[in-house]
Design goal:
binds magnesium ion, D-amino Acid Aminotransferase, Chain A, domain 1, 24 strands, 3 domains, binds adenosine-5'-diphosphate, Rossmann fold, 34% helix, 27% strand, 6-stranded antiparallel beta sheet, alpha+beta
Amino acid sequence: MKVLLVGSGAREHIIAEQLSKSSELYSIMPKKHPGIASLSEETLVHDPTDSAVVGQWAKEKGVALVFVSPDGLLEKGVTDTFSDLGIPVASPSKSAARIEWDKSYARNLMKAKEIPGCPRLKVVSSLEEAREFVSELGEVAVKPIGLTGGKGVKISGEHLNSEEEILGYCSKLIEQDGSVLIEERLEGEEFTLQAFCDGNGLALMPPVQDHKRAFEGDEGPNTGGMGSYSTGKLLPFMEQKDLDDAKGIMQRTLMEMKNEGNPFTGILYGQFMLTRDGVKVIEFNARFGDPEAMNVLILLGTELSEVFLSMANGKLCPVSFSNECTVVKYLVPEGYPLEGKADQPVTVDEEGLWNKGVKLYLGSVYEKEGVTYTTTSRTAALVSKAETRQEAENAVESAISLVSGPLWHRKDIGTDELISRRMEHARRLKQ
Ligand SMILES: Nc1ncnc2c1ncn2[C@@H]1O[C@H](COP(=O)(O)OP(=O)(O)O)[C@@H](O)[C@H]1O
Ligand SMILES: [Mg+2]
């Protein structure tokens, strides 16, 4: 079967690897990603939103299935380019991806259908309304309605240090977008739950915890995600009930979208927070997480192309995962996230990685004359799976020196110290 993957990055690199195991891979990407290109029969380096060109190319190649990966392309309706041509697609339509690109749509759906796990919130379009609601809530999260690459949300007490700063940010967003989402500030441990969806039902992937802050000890500015870990069916601070509640919320959301005539086919990503009042929804995404895709896809026991085909056909097949622990750490350019140093050459000791059993997936890089270069964004992810989290973490750390270039990473992700802190936090909240 010929399968077309649209998008590039470390998340797409592991998707490409999984797809190419049992099908002929074709890829479309805006800049040449050497990892995905080398796994592909053919690659089109072109703007994926140029629907005439990419649609024609897919037809010419005779692809039987398409997967569009990144949020930005889902928002622009790249899935629809292919479904309009009658090609089966395993990613959400522009309209279904609205669950991610329009936070007011997602929250209004939750409110209107009384889906559990929704914090107190309001979408406001005037400073007066904002002032009133902020004074009612006290501690808040201020959220732009649209996509911001994970860099738009500001939290009182963290990024906003007075009511004046909160309202200043609200007013800036109202001016820019016409409205802003204000939510009660929640406290707890966050986790990610991803699921394969066929418009009707879902197949869950193991839960994962990501690390958004740039520096060790969860300090510093937000990033796209510095790394993540998983520990089988549950994370160390979770109970089975938490997982069941989160799954129930995702199932309800899918059902309500279907009932509205907006069925969701693709990867539904639930970002949850385990609070003293149970599981709450932080947001939904319409795609795999990056890094979380790597934690789960490395454990996949079913052929990914088979799963995608069954989703596209509306009849999800059973999906299995091995029960191992995983650790992912991102190597990022010097100066990241504020001013990542681009155009620096990076070399990888492939044989050394092979010997250690650690996988490497290339992120935001490009290739020129056979040399791989950094961009301003995350460079490469190292991924390991093992019986225990400690083994997986040690393996990743021992492989860091096999990647050369002006890069750095967070040493604490997946370590006992950080995880005991998280468990202690969750325990304190529950008391
Ligand atoms: N209501 C909330 N209370 C506390 N923290 C929040 C809340 N909403 C979001 N956050 C924090 O902000 C981060 C980003 O928010 P999110 O809604 O996921 O937006 P995005 O990922 O699109 O930037 C979350 O990962 C979480 O850490
Ligand atoms: Mg988020």
